Amino acid sequence: MCDARYQLASRSFLSIVADTTEQEGAEIQAAVADPRRFTVLYERYFADVFRFLLRRCPDRPTVNDLAQDTFVKAMLALPKYQHRGLPFRAWLYRIALNELRMHWRKRKEVLIDLSYRQVAGLSEEIGLPMEDDEMRRLASAMAKLDEERAQLIHLRYMDGMSFAEMGQLLGTSEDAAKMRTHRVLATLRTYLAPRA
């Protein structure tokens, strides 16, 4: 009886996911044919993209501009979009991340703001207790990472992305994203190791 309910629930969930993917695909095709129909995608994903950018830049007016630029570029690039089995949102995040990088390059600075809640998964992965002194050590170790490595940590632990989503966003495979992230974690562990 329990197995039958589980199978029924699994089939229901899979059909919802398939329907959502088909609906999104149809909306993308409609927007390619008529750019005015891009509004549906914009309204669905604007809040997600805004939050994604806000976690990387604390200035709301700047984030608003970057989010708008992201959607303008997405609308212009939509005819080139190819569905590869990953969410459309990951493609939008990639555009947003490029917009943010251009913004920081112009300003010649990078800001990573981590909240206590966001860093919990990272400290657990590294095996670091959530104590103030240890969190200061972690912040110091994170500051030693270059922008590319810090971005991997941010995507995985602050944004909660899967390795598949990270791969899509970074233009690489899921396995490559996983391997690169684990290398950065190893580097952080080295920075955090007590010195003899």
Question: Would you write up a description of this structure?
Answer:
It contains 9 helices and no strands. By secondary structure, the protein is mainly α. The longest helix has 32 residues. The termini are far apart.
Please give the alpha-carbon distance between the first and last residues: 60 Å
CATH class of the largest domain: Mainly Alpha
> Radius of gyration, rounded?
19 Å
Total beta strand runs:
0
What's the number of helices? 9
The average pLDDT score comes to 78
Helix content: over 70%
**Structure classification:** mainly alpha
The shape, in one word, is elongated
CATH architectural name of the largest domain? Orthogonal Bundle
Strand content: under 5%
The count of domains is: 2
The ordered string of helix (H) and strand (E) elements is HHHHHHHHH
Enumerate the spans where pLDDT stays under 50 for 5 or more consecutive residues: 8-20
CATH topology of the largest domain: Rna Polymerase Sigma Factor, Chain: A
Summarize the structure.
By secondary structure, the protein is mostly helical.
Notable traits:
mainly alpha; Rna Polymerase Sigma Factor, Chain: A; Arc Repressor Mutant, subunit A; 9 helices; 76% helix; 0% strand; elongated
List the helices and strands and how they pair.
Elements: H1 2-33, H2 39-54, H3 60-77, H4 88-107, H5 116-126, H6 132-143, H7 147-158, H8 163-170, H9 174-192
Helix pairs in contact: 2-3, 2-4, 3-4, 4-8, 7-9, 8-9
